[in-house]
Every structure is written in structure tokens, then in C-alpha cells.
Amino acid sequence: MTRIFSGIKPTGHLTLGNYLGAVRRWAEVDQFRADSLFSIVDLHALTVDHDPGRVRRLSRQAATLLLASGIDPERATVFVQSHVDEHARLSYLLECVATDGEMRRMIQYKEKSVLERARGGSVRLSLLTYPVLMAADILAYDADEVPVGEDQTQHVELTRDLAVRFNQRYGQTFVVPRATPPKVAARVMDLQDPTSKMGKSHEAGAGIVYLLDEPDVIRKKIMRAVTDSGSEIVFDPESKPGVSNLLEILASCQVGNPEALSGAYESYGALKKDTADAVVELLRPVQQRHKELVADPGYLEEVLRRGAERARGMAKPTVDGAYRAIGLLPPV
Ligand code: TYM
């Protein structure tokens, strides 16, 4: 059976980008067709300046939202990365296979390190090695597929390179995975700046729809989305990033494609209104279920306890095998 691994980082409140690009597919498709693991990758949240209490709160909230989105812990393994030691164990071995040049070429490292420095801060070493930990997340579970948004595909390519290199040097150990981004909404853009990604760590909130935003807030944000020059409503991300982003969001909500919506609207107002309605309706059941789950924290704890136990059982044999293959003496 196909094995799927994907993760979400608790660095901010989950956004519509996370939902349309990743989580919704995990819940609606992936968990039914594959042996799936979905992780709250909290170790990754420590790579930038962080507040410990906030990371804890966001980790619980992200886990709750995965369940609220319909991920069924009886079908899929839902767990917190730091509860399973194998991620950090394997990450070190992969650091001995990866090169610093490879790390410095990662787009996200370049973007985030520039940002950190511009804020007057220093760059944590773990930000540079981040993609190696991500590779460990995936390779520890022998995952075949990694359903992620477009921004993560370079990291999955690196994961493939590391798996192949390790296998060639030390013998067949890892499955070589592949990224499976969605056809529509692989990169949802910020509503106020449609040339940059809608990201949960961005500070300004006006261009970001959060999964837990109230319906009237969602409507306001979408109605105020920036639009492009000219009044034509066509799908053309290069020259019309604003309107194309709205078409992409609407198409994704309707499980259609944005090209097909080109020409279907005569005014921005009507497109925005339909997009806002579609997003509000899509998120309504998730928000409702989230409310119910928050009232029962014991349930979440039990799900995460069982998830970590299952994940540990899956990762340990592969990671132990990698330790032996690379030349480390087995413990006596
Ligand atoms: P993260 O937490 O930034 O995002 C979680 C998932 O949401 C997708 N996503 C988007 N998709 C479309 N449009 C957007 N605007 C948008 N923003 C986010 C991301 O592509 C991702 O699929 N490094 C990863 C977490 C991670 C991981 C892993 C993922 C750590 N280890 C192993 C897969 C496998 C990240 O920061 O995702």
C-alpha cells in the first residue's frame, strides 16, 4: 500500500493556503487511498525566534484543526514530531550525507535568513539544516508520496537526492519519495500582495484568511483583496495575479479549475462575493467541529498518544537500519 507522509509547522494560525494546498486533500482523499501519517512538526517551529508557550498552543490548535478537517485518527496516524525521537536521530545521519552548499541553495533558507537578518536578528543554525530534518521526517517512514503545496517541492527534491545518495553509499535503506502538489491552489497568494505566498508566519493579517476567522472577517478580507489594473476577469497569474488568485481559490473550493472560470464574471465585485461565500461555506463545518473538539481536550491527548506510539513503531526499524548501514555499532 502507498505510504504518505506530510507535516505542518506550528509557527502561526493555519491559513486558507494550508487548507487548500494541503490539509483538505489529506482529509478528503489521501487518508482513504493510502497509509497516511500527518504530523505537527514542532521541532521545525524552533528554527526561528519563538515563544515556547505559543508553540505549545499552536501545536495543539493545529492538531485539533487536522481532526476538525476530517482526518480520522482511526485511518491516519496523527502525531507530534517531537514525541518520536527517530526524527532527530535520523536527521543527524542525514547531515552527514548532505552538504552545506545544498542547504544554502534552498529558496526558503535564502528568503527566511534575509528576513531574520533584516529584523536585526541572527540566523539559527537549525534554519540552515531545516531541510535535512524534513528529509528525516519523510524517510523515517518509507513514505512514497508527500502531499505538499508548491513551496515545499524543492525540499522534497532534496529529500530524494539524500535518499538516493545514502542508498548508493551505504546500501539500500530508504524509499525515494516524490512530492504530490495539488493541481489547483498549490500556491495560494496573499490577498493584499498577490505576488507573495499566503503564509502563516507573515505578520500583517489583512491578506491572510485564517481557518478560524469568523465568517464576516473572511468576507471582509476577500472583498478587500487587491485587484489588478484593467477590468477583465481572466486567469493569467503573470499579468493578473490578484484576480487569478481569487479564481484559483474559488475553483479550488468548487473542485473545478480556474481557467474554466475565466470569462464567467463581469465584475470584480461578483467574483469576490462568490469567492467569499464559497470559502465561508467550505470552512463552516471545520470551524463547527473545531469548537466541539476544543471542548474535549482529553480526546486530542489520546489521539496524539496513540499516534506517537504507532509512528514510533513504524520509524524505528528504518532508522535503526540506517544507523547500522552507515557504520555505527549496534548497542549491546
Ligand atoms: P507549512 O507548515 O508551511 O505548510 C503546511 C502545508 O501547507 C502548504 N501551504 C500552502 N499551499 C498552498 N498555498 C499556500 N499559500 C500555502 N502555504 C502553505 C505547504 O506547502 C505544506 O504542504 N516544511 C513544511 C513542513 C514539513 C513537512 C515535513 C511537510 C516539515 N517536515 C515533511 C511534508 C513532509 C512546512 O513548513 O509546511
TrEMBL record:
Pfam family, one: tRNA-synt_1b
Compartment annotation: Cytoplasm
Binding sites annotated in the UniProt record for L-tryptophan: 137
GO cellular component: cytosol
Catalyzed reactions per annotation: tRNA(Trp) + L-tryptophan + ATP = L-tryptophyl-tRNA(Trp) + AMP + diphosphate + H(+)
Signal peptide (UniProt feature, chain positions): none
Ranges spanned by the short sequence motif 'KMSKS' region, renumbered to the chain: 197-201
Assigned keywords, A-Z: Aminoacyl-tRNA synthetase, ATP-binding, Cytoplasm, Ligase, Nucleotide-binding, Protein biosynthesis
GO biological process terms on file: tryptophanyl-tRNA aminoacylation
Motif 'HIGH' region boundaries: 10-18
Residues that, per the record, bind ATP: 9-11, 17-18, 149-151, 188, 197-201
Top-level EC class as recorded in UniProt: ligase
EC number of this enzyme: 6.1.1.2
GO molecular function, one term: ATP binding
Family from the record: Belongs to the class-I aminoacyl-tRNA synthetase family.
Biological role stated in the UniProt entry: Catalyzes the attachment of tryptophan to tRNA(Trp).
Protein name: Tryptophan--tRNA ligase
